[in-house]
Amino acid sequence: LMPTKIVTETQLLRLLGNTPLQVDIELLQMASHTSKNTSASHLNTFYKTFAEIAEEKFDGMIITGAPVEKMPYEEVDYWDELCRIMKWSRTYVYSTFHICWGAQAALYYHFGIPKYPLEQKLSGIYSHKVLNPYHPLVRGFDDAYLAPHSRYTQVRKEDIEAHPELSVLTYSEKAGVHIAAKNNGRQFFVMGHAEYDRETLANEYFRDVKKGIHPQVPYRYFPDDDPSKVPPFLWRSHASLLFSNWLNYYVYQ
User: Does the annotation mark 83 as catalytic?
Assistant: First the structure.
């Protein structure tokens, strides 16, 4: 669902390929949406539509973020199709990993949990605490770790905790919920973008500057908050651990 599909593919495949497990990938596009940022030839060559894979079963699935969080879910042009896919995933996919808007959309569709607008965009590198260190998805995590966020909306911790079948695994005082899970391991909801490369937030920041949006400098990202300086890559190890834990404990085992 991300507009920069080739960039996102590369980021996710790099993390999924960082274990001894052999992973076969199918890329899925929305038939009800025309991409403005990825060529039709790339999509036709490498992507399938839901109709082409609807009878297959999968060990794991990733539903990415999308730059539509300011819109009501029902106004997103591919919402009906995404709902069919999320319904299908409960039967045809063993474990589904939802990212950012994809996580918010899944919590809304499956559990009726709403999103709330933020006063300003949440963008930067935030510190998180592990609330359940014995959960396999966060096995090996430090007690506190860093991860990127980039969004205009949030899901509240108390709304998730009102559902006994869900657990909040990690939390940030500034950024809120980062990782939540369905207790049976069939669904995970990651509010940030662990897959982001070093320069991804910078590219988003400079894009918004060029658009005249006047964004705030991403939180604790550029050295000395100076956008001319190269940001340090401080979340890569936990990103690798997050995806390898999901692959190992919930997709493979």
Answer: no
The residues, ordered by sequence, that sit 6+ positions from 185 with a Cβ below 8 Å of its Cβ are: 95, 136, 249, 250
The structure tokens listed for 87 are 């319904």
Residue of 110, 193, 204, 238 marked catalytic: 193
215 burial via Cβ count (<10 Å: 0-12, 13-18, 19+)? middle
Q: Is 161 annotated in the active site?
A: no
Does the annotation count 26 as an active-site position? no
> CA-to-CA distance for 156 and 180, rounded, in angstroms?
11
Structure tokens at 132: 């359940």
Q: How far apart are CA 26 and CA 46, in angstroms?
A: 8
Identity of the residue numbered 57: K
Q: Could you give the C-alpha distances from 200 to 65, 125, 162, 213, 231, in angstroms and in order?
A: 14, 12, 34, 17, 10
Of 40-44, 113-117, 162-166, 191-195, the one with minimum mean pLDDT is 40-44
Query: Which pairing describes strands 93-99 and 187-190: parallel, antiparallel, or unpaired?
Result: parallel
On whether the pTM is more than 0.90, the answer is: yes
How does pLDDT run across 140-198, given as a tens digit for each residue? Answer: 999 999 999 999 999 999 999 999 999 999 999 999 999 999 999 999 999 999 999 99
- What is the distance between the alpha carbons of residues 125 and 209, in angstroms, rounded to a whole number? 19
Segment (H or E) for 94: strand 93-99
The tokens describing 173, both together, are 């005082």
Q: Which residues 6+ apart lie within 8 Å of 125 measured at CB?
A: 146, 147, 148, 201, 218, 219, 220, 221, 234, 235
Entry field: residues in the chain: 253
Coil vs helix vs strand at 120 = strand
Catalytic residue among 9, 69, 100, 135: 100
